[in-house]
Specification:
- The chain is of the alpha/beta class.
- The chain has one domain.
- It is built from 2 helices and 3 strands, in the order E-H-E-H-E.
- A 3-stranded parallel sheet has the order 1-2-3.
- The longest helix has 13 residues, at about 55-70.
- The mean pLDDT is about 90.
Length: about 80
Amino acid sequence: MRLPAPVTYSILPYSAHATRLAQTVHEAGKEIMVHLPMQNLRDMPIGPGGLTNKLTHPAFKLAVSNAVSRVPHATGINNHMGSF
């Protein structure tokens, strides 16, 4: 967190220290994003809370809401896994 430039931290919501790390990063005045696992084109495992095209609309909304709730102070979401 001592990097001499503005850096946005992306935190995996279901990692062991996600909430604590988000709080620490926020207190350091850095921006935070939810690094949300999303389905990829190679069907690689995406981990807990991942978004797939098989989720119903309500399940998709719930998964996003649950992930965001685990990363306090997040100002956005980015894709973990890419689409390769």
